[in-house]
Amino acid sequence: MKRAVLKLLMVLGASALALPGGIVRAADDGIKAVYHINENTKANAALRNIRNHLDADPKAKIVVVTHSKGIDFLLEDAKAPNGAPFAATVAALKARGVDFRVCANTLKSRKISPDSVIPEASIVPSGVAEVARLQAVEKYVYVKP
């Protein structure tokens, strides 16, 4: 096994590094991941996953794209099941470089004012189109918590 890892490192040259446990991954500026949230019951778990993701890969570039009921945690005064405001967690992740995006189509169809979206999030024309664009054009990996 050790020999195979060394051989792989030789093949990949300086573009790879060995991690504890023999795990090998490309040496880069971090993975680009789009987290897709379209259910309000998934927000808590998704935010925990994102925090864990950044703890494991601090250079990761993470974009959270929301639509449908998934936007709810990015609205003013939204609270987690334990009663804590989501805004504090979102602000902490935003400070770590996470980008939050809300679907304008959802806002329109649900008759929600764009002013209700917390300042840490931006509005995109279509959540689904944004997920597709990030995957196809910007080569983000897709994560569905």
Question: What features would you describe in this structure?
Answer:
The protein has 145 residues and is α/β, with parallel strands linked by helices. The chain has two domains: 1-28, no CATH class; 31-143, Hypothetical Protein Ychn, Chain: A. It is 35% helix and 21% strand. The protein is built from five helices and seven strands, in the order αβββαβαβαβαβ. The protein has helices at 2-12, 43-56, 86-95, 104-109, 127-136; strands at residues 16-18, 24-26, 32-37, 61-66, 99-103, 121-124, 141-143. Strands 6-5-4-3-7 form a five-stranded parallel β-sheet, with helices on both faces. It has a two-stranded antiparallel sheet with strand order 1-2. β3, α2 (43-56) and β4 form a beta-alpha-beta unit. α2 packs parallel to α3. The longest helix has 14 residues, at 43-56. The chain is globular, with a radius of gyration of 18 Å.
SSE map:
Blueprint: H1 2-12, E1 16-18, E2 24-26, E3 32-37, H2 43-56, E4 61-66, H3 86-95, E5 99-103, H4 104-109, E6 121-124, H5 127-136, E7 141-143
Parallel strand pairs: 3-4, 3-7, 4-5, 5-6
Antiparallel strand pairs: 1-2
Helix pairs in contact: 2-3
Give a brief rundown of this model.
The protein is an alpha/beta fold and 145 residues long.
Number of strands: 7
Class by alpha and beta content: alpha/beta
- The helical percent reads 25-40%
Lateral strand order in the biggest sheet: 6-5-4-3-7
Give the helix tally: 5
Strand content: 15-25%
- CATH architecture designation of the largest domain: 3-Layer(aba) Sandwich
Order of helices and strands: HEEEHEHEHEHE
By CATH reckoning, the class of the largest domain would read Alpha Beta
How many domains, in number, for the residues?
2
